[in-house]
């Protein structure tokens, strides 16, 4: 039984089903019927790729695996049962002999006033679709506005966090708005302004310095304002107050300050390392030889750097999934188990257009060569849809970007503070409030505030934002009294209910 079909879970399922064939029943529990190739999400937000290109069908890619659609919200390690909520609100229960937890991570929050209400994260497909529409809308509204101040504010886009996600969002976003403005010129000749902030002294602070330099140079050449050593002190509907005292009028705040492990694992009552489930080098949960964890949600000892844990990257998650699959098979008498060990192969950062920054095997690359290596790497790494992705790239190279907003994902349906970034909230959808007595409902959608940033109160009302805000009000309150704290069966009995991310933000993450 594998919970979560991202990089780690997908690869566990694939490896195990290949090794064990029909001797083992592999069940994969995931809220969506696709594997999401997250590294290409900035290209979805910028209109380079259509969303289904980065969504690889689990049914097609894993034909021998039984897919169950749903979100685990109650793990009972004692009776070896996973309880979940299906896509239509139905409850289900699955028993297991071996369990692999690979539920990934969610947006990280910081206790900054106004951010939960006015910022959006970038961890799932709904957020990327929202951002694409939102940015398009801001440019269209700005072009139609007679007021230069409003126009300027709508044309200002602030990205917080200059890790690979923030850098790619800003790099692609700037090219996207540049192409939109060609079709919607601003009255006073105002140009889109992109700002990238980070409290760290350099962009890509966790990567090689040469990658940082390349990325910063490309961003600055394009006109992105890179402000290192700077962060947001407060966010409001009208803009942000920076910690250096500057105020920036904007309707767009993209929150890319990092991720935290999915709160589900915190509820297990097992030892954690910064919210990640502590496992041994064989990816086993100590004291539970039948339970494994891997990917962002697991703290896996880094045998290449003794004393530390592997980073939260796709590179590790993918390979850990392989090891988890092998080790589960070994526990059933098929093959031999092995410890997880991986030497960093370098990193690639897609800067949009033909540019990139990369250091494959430690060799620093920049410009079009890095761009080509980055795209080639992604194509090779994707477990499907390669021809479709390449076709979209080709079309993007010869045709102008499509500047239309479908408006299907609205601000209130992609709250920053959520444990389910893979799903968009829908008004009257399968009952947040019905589930877990309000725990899941904690999906506080910050509706009122964020919907307003879509274009004011009118937009919020028109798309049901106001309604959703009202409907969620109670749920939010219910969650804030601590789904995370009450649901786990305390005392480490091994039973976990889905933790509420609201509480995490209060804990100061
Ligand atoms: C925009 C972006 C760009 C990135 N670019 C790179 C990059 O270039 N290189 C790199 O190495 N890393 C990159 N990363 C990081 C990388 O994507 C993650 O480290 C990786 O996805 C972790 O894999 P995972 O399997 O642990 O989690 P995920 O891939 O997130 O998968 C988790 C899965 O679990 C499911 N799930 C969650 N909760 C539940 C539940 N309760 N029940 C059932 N299923 C559940 C989710 O729906 C999802 O399918 C990027 C991340 C982002 C957001």
Automatic annotation (TrEMBL):
Keywords associated with the record: FAD, Flavoprotein, NAD, Oxidoreductase
Domain spans labelled FAD/NAD(P)-binding: 1-321
GO molecular function, one term: NADH dehydrogenase activity
Compositional bias (Low complexity): 441-488
UniProt superkingdom: Bacteria
Matching Gene3D superfamilies: 3.50.50.100
Name under which the protein is recorded: FAD/NAD(P)-binding domain-containing protein
């Amino acid at each position: 039984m594998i919970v979560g079909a991202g990089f780690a879970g997908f690869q566990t399922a694939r490896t195990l089903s290949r090794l064990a064939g029909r001797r083992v029943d592999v069940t994969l529990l995931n809220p969506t019927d696709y594997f999401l190739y997250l590294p290409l999400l900035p290209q979805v937000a910028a209109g380079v790729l259509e969303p289904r290109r980065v969504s690889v069908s689990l049914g097609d890619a894993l034909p021998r695996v039984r897919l169950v659609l749903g979100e685990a919200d109650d793990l009972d390690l004692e009776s070896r049962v996973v309880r979940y909520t299906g896509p239509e609100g139905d409850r289900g229960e699955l028993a297991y002999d071996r369990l692999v937890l690979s539920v990934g991570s969610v947006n990280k929050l910081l206790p900054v006033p106004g951010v939960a209400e006015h910022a959006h994260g970038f961890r799932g497909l709904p957020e990327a679709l929202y951002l694409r529409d939102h940015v398009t809308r801001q440019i269209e509204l700005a072009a139609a506005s007679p007021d230069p101040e409003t126009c300027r504010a709508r044309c200002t886009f602030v990205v917080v966090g200059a890790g690979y996600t923030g850098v790619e969002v800003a790099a692609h976003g700037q090219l996207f708005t540049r192409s939109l403005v060609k079709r919607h010129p601003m009255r006073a000749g105002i140009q889109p302004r992109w700002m990238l902030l980070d409290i760290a002294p350099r962009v890509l602070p966790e990567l090689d310095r040469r990658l940082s330099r390349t990325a910063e140079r490309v961003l600055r050449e394009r006109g992105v304002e890179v402000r290192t050593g700077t962060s947001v002190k407060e966010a409001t509907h009208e803009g942000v107050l920076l910690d250096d005292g500057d105020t920036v009028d904007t309707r767009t705040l993209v929150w890319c300050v990092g991720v935290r492990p999915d709160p589900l694992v915190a509820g297990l009552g097992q030892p954690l390392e910064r919210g990640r489930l502590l496992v041994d080098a064989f990816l086993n949960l100590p004291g539970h030889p039948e339970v494994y964890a891997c990917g962002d949600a697991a703290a896996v000892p880094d045998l290449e750097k003794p004393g530390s844990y592997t980073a939260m990257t796709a590179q590790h998650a993918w390979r850990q999934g392989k090891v988890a699959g092998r080790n589960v098979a070994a526990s059933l008498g098929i093959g031999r188990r092995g410890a997880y060990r991986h030497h960093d192969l370098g990193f690639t950062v897609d800067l949009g257009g033909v540019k990139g920054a990369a250091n494959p095997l430690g060799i620093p690359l920049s410009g079009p060569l890095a761009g080509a290596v980055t795209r080639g790497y992604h194509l090779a790494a994707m477990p499907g849809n390669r021809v479709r992705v390449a076709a979209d790239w080709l079309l993007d190279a010869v045709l102008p970007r499509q500047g239309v907003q479908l408006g299907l994902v609205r601000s209130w349906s992609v709250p920053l503070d959520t444990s389910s970034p893979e799903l968009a909230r829908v008004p009257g959808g399968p009952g947040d409030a019905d589930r877990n007595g309000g725990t899941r409902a904690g999906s506080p959608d910050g509706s009122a505030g964020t919907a307003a940033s879509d274009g004011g109160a009118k937009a919020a009302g028109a798309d049901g934002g106001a309604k959703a805000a009202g409907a969620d009000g109670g749920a939010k309150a219910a969650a804030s009294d601590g789904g995370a704290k009450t649901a786990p069966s305390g005392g480490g009995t091994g039973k976990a209910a889905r933790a509420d991310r609201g509480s995490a933000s209060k804990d100061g993450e």
